[in-house]
Design goal:
2 copies of one chain form a homodimer. Chain A contains 12 helices and 8 strands. In chain A, helix 3 packs across helix 6 and helix 7 crosses helix 9. The longest helix of chain A has 21 residues. Chain A is globular.
Chain lengths: 310, 310
């Protein structure tokens, strides 16, 4: 009984003391001071503090898009960069492969790539095991370098966004990446940078075959592509809870952002990253529609630094 | 600095004291003493104790079948019990509905039900929102009663299995239900008893439509039914990690059990529940093949009691 009372007392003391101590210093040092940083911290503080806006830990769901939201997506999505490099290697090793997309690969046929993105994506890794393919992706992320930054693609996750993910997780949010890229690719490329388990890295699924412990990749999508309405759908299928926090950057994230914003049970926050910083990154319009309550984050004005290794 | 040192000290004390105190008493009181109970406790102790068999908390994945493993499945699966009750109510309220399965419902056509299980299951809730349908399921689980036990179906989860789920969760396992029943049904019926969030209650998915915050049920499966190879497949799609612990009871669980048993990275444990207790429940052969390492749990000899409210 004494042991039990002691442990209960210690538990109470721990719960009371630890959270305050954990964030005594700035949780988002790569963010410039300003309205957006304040809004994020105010939101997290409100939903984690007993009071009107409190949200139980089990309901603190946060969803992030990947390409262009937490990872550089220019001059082309990293999935495309990888798929082309992967197929080029297959074409090089198998000079007799005369079918597409290998023929286009050999002939550097840009027109083919421009109009056959789905075939390029689904052809890479066809017939391979999921595990071997994930290893190939991870190896690519650690070695292949970005044409502009000349560092491996795996280093091109935005430092402010990784800090935000860490900050949310430290406040008992369950954070998911909900990407339009293929799920195996998201798992291979984002696991190390985000620290999230595979079950929280979601994307468009390639249909798999199962036999005696191995998953073999088919050459087609399982069903939905996880862009636009596909994002709320994969959230419902795999999470089953409405996010209270969402972050995106393109029109393909609009449905997910509005889904979080429309949360009727809890206060919610949704943001999108505006790529307005040609000097440090790229400047482009990605078609997000401004709707009431949606916050625009400016890379130029809100990001103190872009990458961890600067 | 003093606050920080104090909290660090308290954290260390908490980590050191709490787990020991938490399981000082029997974690599985509804299990009879015996080889199976010992094997479970020895396994959990081994994978959570620093040493050769230690498994990091993030890799402690456990998967349970639902019907017949944690929930009574006789005289018929609870999903069928529910679907028929649901359709009977639709038929009653809409006397003009002359198509199937409503006609069969009205005529109590058992032959139709016997050969059209998929249509019965997919027809229930067609056109409804997922949320409303889940509420209907939960209401059924709390009010409709089992023909033999005369208590609501939601009370017919086996006490020893709920204890086992709690025991694993207290030891930082991530526990999933991987059922062949439809996912919305699993979420509706098992959430309260197991305490697991929707994202850890998996099953055969009905294809959904999304529009402005609402998910509407179609009348077809999304794709795979989560039995046999469908269980490892949904585990790979939604979890992406190989279980170290699995529990089933029928041939439809065999692939999942062998998938866990074949874990090459960590020690694993897989068990199946043999329904050999006609006196307290039902006695039937559910076709599990004995393979090396797979443990058979006898309801008659291993379960001290069946239900929490006995």
């Amino acid at each position: 009984m004494i042991g039990s009372s002691l442990s209960r007392l210690l538990l109470i003391v721990c719960v009371a003391v630890l959270p305050a101590a954990a964030w005594a210093k700035d949780p988002l040092p790569s963010w410039k001071e300003g309205a957006n940083k304040q809004a994020i911290i105010a939101f997290v503080t409100a939903v984690t503090t007993q009071g009107d806006a409190f949200v139980p830990a089990t309901d603190r769901i946060a969803t992030f898009d990947m390409d262009g939201t937490i990872l550089v997506e220019k001059p082309q999505a990293v999935l495309l960069e990888f798929s082309r490099a992967f197929l080029a290697e297959v074409a090089r090793k198998n000079p007799d492969l005369a079918t597409q997309p290998y023929k286009a690969m050999r002939e550097k046929d840009e027109a083919y790539f421009g109009t056959n993105l789905v075939e390029v994506i689904t052809s890479a890794g066809i017939g391979m095991s999921e595990e071997d393919f994930r290893k190939a992706i991870r190896s690519f992320a650690n070695t292949a370098t970005h044409p502009r930054y000349a560092v491996p693609f795996g280093k091109l996750f935005y430092a402010p966004m990784l800090e935000l993910i860490d900050y949310l997780r430290a406040n008992d949010f369950r954070v998911y990446v909900v990407s339009g890229s293929t799920q195996c690719f998201v798992r291979g490329v984002a696991r190390e940078a985000t620290g999230l388990p595979y079950g929280q890295l979601l994307g468009t699924q390639i249909a798999l075959y199962y036999y005696k412990g191995d998953f073999t990749r088919s050459g087609t999508f399982r069903d939905l592509t996880t862009v636009s309405a596909g994002k709320p759908l994969i959230i419902e299928y795999q999470i089953g809870q409405r996010p209270i926090f969402a972050f995106g950057n393109t029109s393909g994230d609009q449905d997910m952002l509005e889904y979080a914003l429309g949360n009727q049970t809890y206060r919610s926050l949704a943001l999108w990253l505006d790529h307005d910083d040609a000097e440090r990154e790229y400047a482009y319009d990605s078609g997000v529609k401004d709707v009431s309550g949606l916050l625009k984050v400016s890379m130029k004005n809100d990001f103190a630094r872009l990458f961890r290794e600067e």
